Each structure stands twice: as C-alpha cells, then as structure tokens.
C-alpha cells in the first residue's frame, strides 16, 4: 500500500475529487441521526419525567433500556432486518431509524430521570411555597435546573448514534458508512480512510456543537 | 395500586414481545443454520471470544496503569492533556477506528486486535481516572497522617475505593468490544460477525439470525457476569449506593 | 514533648500562613490551637507530622528535630484525627481501627485484642461492629471510631484537627466528655485544632490563640479569659468571658478555698448539684431557684452544704486577684 506519506496525499486527493458526494453522504448521515434523536427526545424526556413519579416502573424501564444498550448494534440490525422484512422494510432507512431511537433511550431517559429526581428538595418546596402548580413547577423550576444533565444525555446519544449510523450503511441506510462499506468491498484504502476521517470530524463537530448548545440553553446561574 | 398495574403491564408486554420473537424465530426455523453448521459456529465463537479477550486484556493492562500514573503527583500536570485526548477519542466511532487501522495495517487478525484494543482503552481509562479522582481527599490525608507509604495509599485506599468505577469501566469496554468484534469480520478478524454480514449480503434470514442472536446472548451474559463480579470484588462499604 | 521554635510557613512567594510561632507542648497536656478560619492553626498542626513542610524555624518531637526523623515512622508514632473522621469506606470497622497496627506488622491476636480493648474504651460492642462498614454508623459513632483508630498503636502524641466539628451540639458535648474521660486515663500529649472558644475552654489545658499566622496568646484557659493579652483576644473570647470562665471551675475547687454554707432548707426544695458540677451550671440553677441557692451532695446523695450567688461571686473575685499569669517559655 506504499509509504504513508503518499497514502496521505492520495487521501487528500480523494477528498478533493469527491467532496460533493462526501457532503451528500454527510447530510444523509445527519438526517438519519438527527431525525432519530428528535423522536428519541420526544419519547425519552417525557418518559424520564413521568418515571420520577413511579419508582417501580422506573427501575423496570431503566433495566430494559440497559439491556437494549448491551445488544451489539450490528446484531440488533441483524435481528431487525428480518422483522421489518415482514412489512417490506427490511433493508434501508426504517430498521436503522428504529434502532437509533432504541439506543438513544437509555442515556436520555436515565439522565432526565436522575436529574429531575435529584432536584434539590428545598428548591421544589420553595416552588410550592410561592404558589406554583405542578406544571409551573416542572417548566419554570425543574426543567431549567436540569438542562445541563438532560443535554449531557442527549449529547451521549448523538455521539453514540453517529457511530451506529456508520454501521447502518451495511443494511442500506446510507450515510458516511457507505464510504467504508464500499471501500472494504472494493479494497479501496483511500476511500476507507476518507470515510473514517469524515466520520470522526462529524462526531467531534457534533459533540462541540452540542456543548455549545448546552451552554446556550442553560440559564445563567446554573453551573 | 394504579402505579403497580402500569409497571406490570409494561413487564408483561416485554415478556410477550420476547416470547413472540422466539416463537417467530423457531416457527421459521431461523436457527437451522446454526444447528446444521454447529462445528463452524464453535470455530466462529472461539475466534470471537479470542478477539474480545485478547484486546480487552491488553486494554486493561495499558489503561489502568496509565490512569494510575497520571493521578500521581509527579505526573499530574499531564492529566488535563490526556483526559482531553481521551474525551475526543470517545467521539470517534469504533467503525472509523477499525477502518483506519485497516487502512494502515491491512486486513487480518492482528489489525482487528489492535483496533479493538485502542477502542477499549478509552472507557477503562476514563472510569479508572474518575474512580481514583473521586476518592475523598480526606481519606488520602488521613492515610498520609497515619504513616501510609505512597504505594500503600494506592493499594489500600485509592484502588479499593475506586474499584467499583474501574470494574464498571471494564464491563462497558468488554460489552462494547463484543459488539465491535462483530464488525471485525469486515477487516478479516473472523468471529460471529461473519454470519451476520453474509446473511445481509445474501438476504438469508437464517444465517443472519444464527449470527445475531448468539452475539446478543453473549453480550448480555457477559454483562451480567461482570455485574456479579462487581458485587463479589468490591467491598460493601465502597459501593456507590452506600456512600 | 512537642516544641515549635520560631516556626514560619510561607506558601508560594509571599503568603505567610504561620509567622514566627514558638510554643511548647508538655507531655500529657491538651493544647488547643484556637482561632478564626485562615489563622494558620491547621497548618501549624499539620507541620508536626510533615503533612506541611516547615519554611523556617524548627519543630522538635521528644527533643529531636522532625527534619532528622523518618517521616513515615514519625507519623506512625503520632495519632491523627480529622474532622470528617477519614474512616476508609472500603474497610470494616475492625480493619479501620487496626490499620496502623497492621502497617506496623502486629500479629492477628494482638490486633484483635487491641480492637476489643479500644471498643470497650468508647463503650461500643466489639462483636456487633466488627464486620460492619463506616457508612452503617452514625456520625457520633464514626467519630469515636476515628479517635480510637488514632489511639490504636498507643502513640504518645495525637494531632486532632477539629475532630468533633461535624457533630451536632448534643452529640458533640457527649463525645467531648467521653474523650476527656479517656484522656484522664491515658495522659496523651495532644494538639487539638478548634475554632470554637467554648470547646477550647472545655478541652484545653492550654490554649494557643492565633490570628493571621501569629500567636496572640498562649496560656491556661482561665488566664485567657481573665487576662486577655490584647484587644483581639478579648474580642475573640467575647463579652461574656466571665460567664465562660465559670465553665472551667468546679464546686470541688471552690470547696478548696471556702467552706460550703450550712443549709437550713429541706432537701428537695432546691436543686441539687454534685461536687464535680461546673460553676456555670451551678449559677444557672441558683438564678432559677426562689431561695437563690443550690444544695451540694456527695457521692451518697447526702446534702453536704449549700452554695449561693454571693459565694460564687466571692470565689471569682478572689481568683482574678490571686491568679498569676502563666509564664510563656
């Protein structure tokens, strides 16, 4: 495969020649991960909040989410492909989308649940004391105070999903994983390395962006 | 009362779902491939376990000592840099590391071991570091004041009290590693991932399930086993629920 | 036994935490290092066992400079107790108590015996607690274990850094009393850091009052209360210093100078106090009673006389006149 210096330049060349396609795959990747995360948040955050009112259900749900988390992603895809094939969606976007939502649940539910659970009881008392009702307390006191922790859960889920999204390319869901899957089939090293680099950049960028967003959403006065 | 009903309903739905899944698997004879090729299955399983064990062992041997090293006073100035690198490393997907290593080392068992090893270092290092740093500084102060030597502080105070976190890191790393090893097939590492990818490529559900189900069961079993080990190894007083 | 000679501690370039402090701690004494936070009292304490280095001056332990002693061996010879008790959560109570003997390589039997002795000393059931972990104990129990752990290898000296600071007032009082009772038997040389004047008066044979790293006054509690060396000491001691000084005097001391009054009141009509009661409590009972007096009883609960306000007052005035200041060596 030649010396490393020329490999480096060939990778640069590959990037330059295929920049449009790589950007297109990046958009696909972001759409897959982004849409899954939005749905995951819409399920996970309310569920996490509800669980703080039902301890028993909380441990059940967190255990289930924990077991899902231990299932290797390629194995979960492998199981879901035949299941979704029953409704003719075996290969493609749907199984990947569902898998990503499932994997996001543990970090999002767990962080929401623990954060709300751990809101200082004195703050909660004070909210009641000034005459807030349950909803006001939730939206004006508990959620603003727990944004950093909930966001940390979302960030974990996003970084995780970007990685799993790569594997989803092998079941035809598109995205940057295509560079790796096709690169491997064709034995095209520059393509594989470009894919790895593009994915790493996407992962790091997403993490930085979410850290920034977290700071923006966190009310001043909460560290 | 009402809350218990909700909990039980959820549990019953999950069990019914699982039952339905296994009925579906058996009624379609999806495990036939496994039964008919049991010899090959054992070879793949052995490869899989070898890859996981070897790379995990190497990762523990590197990550735990390095985390201990950067928490020693002489090396503490490197801790910030190392932690930043490790945290960045964590945002890089495992498939990317596998692919990069393949780009550098070509395909084969060794490449797979190296790539899996690199990815497993991160959670172990992170948890060991966090575990040691979370040991209350008062304990270290007491130990020093009572005349513990530095190595005694490490082995009698810091490590036992960080043990829970360290083992949790190892558990995370090993479970992720079992999944990542399934991808090692792509770079010529062998293992149970073989049947999954073949199954996807030839649209054969039986091959697919025969690969995917055993990996899932392996991951869940190892996770449970390591949780039990956690209970056994960590002194009762040093578990997080008791602090 | 412990001597500070012109000890100075400077952090970084120019933060002086301890400034030219000299003081002697005699064998068998409790010396309380007292002062507001940031006055250097904890630094002063931690320099003895080498947890803080000495910038200038010297500290000697049994006449030997601590610079010449092996740090690890020195520490094993000095008991060390801190506010948050510092019990190791990973070790059982027995392992915690015998941790220094373990370091010193004692035999299993010796350690077991020592553990049982020490638990008896603080009135805890040795069997009950043997296999339990620190988090399963109450704050007061944990602190007792912290104290006996420091005593385990029978060190001649102890360093105690606000050892009872985290306990609530009622428990603190009890643990203090218990500790004083133990000390009366063991006669350890003790350096004790506190920010609480009441605790210092109660625990200390002498008090070293610190401010901004400097030693303001080093004297017996009675002297600090009656003859404050400067405005800072007077202010720190508080306006009620005469009332506080009542705490350190007991009826039996009063009885050495005066005869008790002959009582003409029936037993039971006024409060009774024992000979070991301190004058602060006594005065409080006197003020409460209509007859302005209390009965003093002996060990058999027989009334041996009575005390009134005039007698307490007389004793305090006398004491202020007769007390010579302790010479600071």
TrEMBL record, chain A:
Subcellular location: Cell membrane
SUPFAM superfamilies for the chain: MetI-like
Positions of transmembrane segments: 30-50, 57-77, 83-103, 158-180, 192-213
GO biological process, one term: transmembrane transport
Keywords carried by this UniProt record: Amino-acid transport, Membrane, Transmembrane, Transmembrane helix, Transport
Chief site of localization: membrane
Gene3D superfamilies: MetI-like (1.10.3720.10)
One cellular-component annotation, GO: plasma membrane
Protein name: Choline ABC transporter permease
UniProt organism field: Alkalibacillus haloalkaliphilus
TrEMBL record, chain B:
Pfam families cross-referenced by the UniProt entry: BPD_transp_1
Keyword Transmembrane helix: yes
Protein's UniProt keywords contain Transcription regulation: no
UniProt GO cellular component terms: plasma membrane
One GO biological process term: amino acid transport
Source organism superkingdom: Bacteria
Coiled-coil zones: none
Domain ABC transmembrane type-1 as annotated: residue spans: 45-226
Location relative to the cell: Cell membrane
Keyword line: Amino-acid transport, Membrane, Transmembrane, Transmembrane helix, Transport
TM region(s), chain numbering: 12-31, 51-75, 95-119, 162-187, 207-229
PROSITE patterns: ABC_TM1
Topology relative to the membrane: Multi-pass membrane protein
Family statement: Belongs to the binding-protein-dependent transport system permease family. CysTW subfamily.
Protein's recorded name: ABC transporter permease
TrEMBL record, chain C:
Keywords: ATP-binding, CBS domain, Cell inner membrane, Cell membrane, Membrane, Nucleotide-binding, Repeat, Transport
Location of this chain's protein in the cell: Cell inner membrane
EC number: 7.6.2.9
Record InterPro entries: AAA+_ATPase, ABC_transporter-like_ATP-bd, ABC_transporter-like_CS, CBS_dom, CBS_dom_sf, Gly-betaine_transp_ATP-bd, P-loop_NTPase
CBS domain ranges (all copies): 265-322
PROSITE patterns assigned: ABC_TRANSPORTER_1, ABC_TRANSPORTER_2, CBS
Coiled-coil zones: none
Enzyme class: translocase
Recorded GO CC terms: plasma membrane
SUPFAM superfamilies found in the cross-reference section: CBS-domain pair, P-loop containing nucleoside triphosphate hydrolases
Domain ABC transporter per the UniProt entry, residue ranges: 2-237
Keyword Cell cycle: no
Pfam family, any one: ABC_tran
SMART domains given in the database record: AAA
Catalyzed reactions: a quaternary ammonium(out) + ATP + H2O = a quaternary ammonium(in) + ADP + phosphate + H(+)
Membrane topology: Peripheral membrane protein
Taxonomic superkingdom: Bacteria
An example Gene Ontology biological process: amino acid transport
Subunit comment: The complex is composed of two ATP-binding proteins (OpuCA), two transmembrane proteins (OpuCB and OpuCD) and a solute-binding protein (OpuCC). The complex is probably composed of two ATP-binding proteins, two transmembrane proteins and a solute-binding protein.
Similarity comment: family membership: Belongs to the ABC transporter superfamily.
NCBIfam families recorded: proV
Protein name stated in the entry: Quaternary amine transport ATP-binding protein
Species, as recorded: Alkalibacillus haloalkaliphilus
